[in-house]
Amino acid sequence: MRALMLFFLFIVGLFSSLVVSAEQAFAQTDKTKNISKAAQSRVINDSLVENLRCSTLSVDNIYKAIRADAFSEERNMPVTNWPFRSGVATIAGCWALSSTQRMVSYLARYNTVGAQAMSVRVPVILDMVRGNKLVENTRDNSNAPYDTRPASYSTFAVEGNTLKATNTYNGLWAEMRDGYDQWISGARVRRNFTDEIEANQANRFFRFGNLGMTFKSGERSVKANWATMAQLLKNLNGKRLTLMNLRVERTIQHVVMVKSYKKTKSNVYEFTVYDSNQPSRDVLLYFDGTSGQFYSPAIVGGFVYQNASRPVGAFIVSEDERAPLEKAMLAHYKGQCR
Known about the structure:
- The chain has three domains: 24-69, no CATH class; 71-206, no CATH class; 209-323, no CATH class.
- It has nine helices and 16 strands.
- It has helices spanning 2-40, 59-64, 94-107, 118-130, 172-178, 193-205, 222-237, 297-300, 322-337, and strands at residues 43-44, 52-53, 83-86, 89-92, 108-110, 132-135, 147-150, 156-158, 180-184, 187-191, 242-249, 252-263, 268-274, 283-288, 293-295, 313-317.
- Helix 4 runs parallel beside helix 6.
- The chain is globular, with a radius of gyration of 27 Å.
- Mean pLDDT is 87; it is low at 2-9 and 25-35.
């Protein structure tokens, strides 16, 4: 009888513990749901986006939430394009600077408090400027001092409202220009903004795929221009900053970053453009819907001294660089929505 009583008490105790555990589990699940609901109802506002809802977070919705003033000319990088030697050729950094400006436009978070230390931020940013990170060379058939891997892209903090505002002692822009020493296999490699831009430009300038833009001189066909326009308008309507190579002559070409546009009553499209040759202010690129040609007198006038008003060939370039920027933006806001 006593054994039966003990067994009965054991069963009752076991049942009670299971009930308590179930209640605790339910309470924990309910708490998790409440946290999830709170995160889902969150709305994010920062220097790039406004009213970005976590409940509908996606790459497309990030673009839709971009502020009207996010790409203001005040946030153009405070550095002017320069010529430099690369091998036997003298080139300039317009393509690399335009690519970097697009990266900065999407990934910089201005007026950020409590940012990471410069020793953490600067190496990551300079890798993104170069497009590669430098690693130890482990290939037996190469005497190169280092090897490269694709850069990891991420958002980064800027303490001021512009990069120019951080061009002060211990400021971000000043630190990027000054750079740092990276040690690879016991050897010192100096990393700074100027060197990374030059490496980026040389890497993209000497590509076989660029030959198609050098077969002819000046303007392209009306058919080709309207195809370019279709892609360009689609990009800009979706707030996708677009790099364009402007071909004045076979050996005179210049890459800019297109920000936005408006269409006039006279069937002319006016594109607002970042030009690394005059970064302190945005300039205009035109497409005449009647002639079907692009014109850029304010851009090419700085390096073409005769007939700067003639049509130019226009090519959309570097569309493949958009994906890592989008991935970085999405990862950043997913973190904000947790």
